Amino acid sequence: MFMRWLIAHKLPASLILAMVLIALRQLGASTAAEIVVSIPDQTLALLDGDRVITRYRISTSKFGNGDNVGSYRTSLGTLFVSGKFGDHLPAGTVIKNRAPTREIIGADAPNRDAIISRVIWLRGMERQNSASHDRCIYIHGTPEERHIGKPFSFGCIRMRSRDVIALYDRAHVGLHVTISEKSIDALLPQEKPTLLSRAD
User: Fold this and answer.
1) Burial 68-92 (b: 16+ CB within 10 A, else e)
2) Does residue 191 carry a pLDDT above 70?
3) 175-189, pLDDT tens digit by residue?
4) Would you say the pTM of this structure is higher than 0.85?
5) Which domains does the chain have, with CATH numbers?
6) Which of 90, 100, 120, 159 is the most exposed place for a label (fewest CB within 10 A)?
7) In the predicted model, is pLDDT for residue 114 greater than 90?
């Protein structure tokens, strides 16, 4: 029906083709089905069904886990992506109140602890994380890359700029995010045995 509308409005063929290619590229980029986050391993994995697309090192809260307002803790449980901010921004762009500023800062810039590059806003789906959205719990870029791999945030999930940009391009609004105190291996799909793997 959409193609019929395009043709009926006599848009140039080149424009129609460009729009179709953009739509296909976006569909191809949004193949992720779930994000899982392991607090003890400080690792985030992007999944597509039983397939692990990629893993990233992260940084969660240095104050521990929880959802109380003002606690600066990282929420646990099942959440979902409720918004994305930062399309096409240069890496290192400072983001305040989910809007870009004109400032760009590099990795490990001294005395800077800003939100940079991309913001993926999370909303809780359970009682244990119901305040997450109002607490502005994000997955976002950080200039403090030297602290990635250990708890150092004020509640959000921090990532290197290049990693959060890559994740942002694959994540979509509605994508489920599970944040857990389990190991990353326990959160990942178990490999299914095949006939070739049988020992008998």
Assistant:
1) eeebbbbbbbbbbbeebbbeebebb
2) no
3) 999 999 999 999 998
4) no
5) 1-30 (no CATH), 32-182 (2.40.440.10)
6) 90
7) yes
